[in-house]
Design goal:
By secondary structure, the protein is of the alpha/beta class. The radius of gyration is 23 Å and the shape is globular. The chain contains 2 helices and 16 strands. It has helices at 5-27, 170-178, and strands at residues 39-51, 57-73, 75-76, 79-80, 89-94, 102-107, 116-118, 121-127, 133-136, 139-143, 148-150, 155-157, 160-164, 167-168, 185-186, 191-193. Helices cover 16% and strands 43% of the residues. Strands 1, 2, 5, 6, 8, 9, 10, 12, 13 and 16 form a 10-stranded mixed beta sheet that branches. The model is unreliable at 16-32 (pLDDT under 50).
Amino acid sequence: MTKPASLTRSVLLRSCAPAALSLALALAPKAVQAQAFQATPEVFQGDVSIDREMPNIDRIRVDGFDAVIDWAPQEINGASLTFLPDGNTAIFLGAPDASGFAVLNRIQPTAISTPAEFAGTVQAFLTDSSGTPTTPGGFVAFYSPTGILVSGTAVVEVPQLMLTTNDVDIASFTDFATGAGPLLVSGTSSTVSI
């Protein structure tokens, strides 16, 4: 005797329900933690790893003198966010036993074309073999063609910092960071090095 089609469908649907529920839970959107930089990073060049697991903290590990990271700022309702909000910390870390590191952060323009605002903390350290920050170190550069605004709440703990609205020639960046040549830029705006 064959089972009625409605009974077969009912049994089939009940047996698939747990699998469907498991798939739905696996694909459900996860809560996004706040990162330090309100932008999406993409490593353009060099050996870089970016840890954004801790809320409001970005730990950016840089090995070498030729690291370039492109940052796409986030926007809400057509307005760009503060690039590094007050209370957030971006920590650049160099390899253990390294003589230093250099990283160029290129903040990509948005449709709004507002300056990249820094209101939080930027730090740069060399690390020991366990990855623990030991001494200040590194050369950290930020380029934003729409301008850079450093607010009164910003804290910068970086031995060598460059902020520029001039487009940086990447080939010369490594030479400049290692002291082997000049840094070539293009544009009419001014550059500030600290």
